[in-house]
Specification:
Number of helices: 5
Largest sheet: 7 strands, mixed
Shape: globular
Oligomer: single chain
Order of helices and strands: EHHEEHEHEHEE
Distance between the termini: 32 Å
Helix content: 25-40%
Length: 159
């Protein structure tokens, strides 16, 4: 699967939303043991979700952007900052650049909404991935669903 072709798009229709949910279940609930009631929340209804799909339609990854009041609790109330979350790439698709493409699509969605920066809560094992994409860690390590995390932020300069 080294030359897999895929596309990333905003998940707008119900089938795309279901695919996002299925990827999250596979990665977070099944693989990482996150309780299902913690994985899915009220923000899913208002978030902008992105989906990576293989040419044949197989979902490869997903992520979401919270903005405005929905993001305020994660951005210390700063409404100019969006919150990237629930980034998940299936085992089969790791190493293909899907995660990078999803992060960039979420950043594009944030720019389109006039946001100045994007925050995220990274699992500590993924800090290097986000650092390579321009994110900087801040604050202490903290547990989320029993997994160690750090807060990170990237300023969004208009292209």
């Amino acid at each position: 699967m080294s030359r897999t072709s895929y596309a990333v798009r905003v998940a707008e229709d119900p089938a795309d939303r279901e695919a996002c949910s299925a990827v999250r279940k596979e990665v977070f609930v099944v693989e990482q043991g996150v309780p299902q009631e913690l994985e899915y929340d009220e923000y899913d209804a208002v978030a902008t979700h992105v989906l990576a799909v293989r040419e044949d339609g197989l979902p490869l990854g997903t992520g979401r952007l919270l903005y405005g009041e929905a993001a305020a609790a994660k951005t210390d109330g700063d409404l100019t900052v969006g919150s990237l979350g629930r980034l998940a790439v299936t085992k089969e698709a790791r190493g293909l650049g899907v995660g990078v493409a999803l992060v960039r699509a979420i950043e594009d969605a944030a720019r389109a909404r006039g946001l100045a920066a994007v925050d995220l809560h990274a699992q500590t094992h993924a800090l290097g991935f986000y650092e390579r994409l321009g994110y900087e860690a801040y604050g202490p390590e903290f547990p989320d669903a029993g997994i160690p995390h750090r807060a990170m932020r990237r300023s969004l300069h208009q292209p």
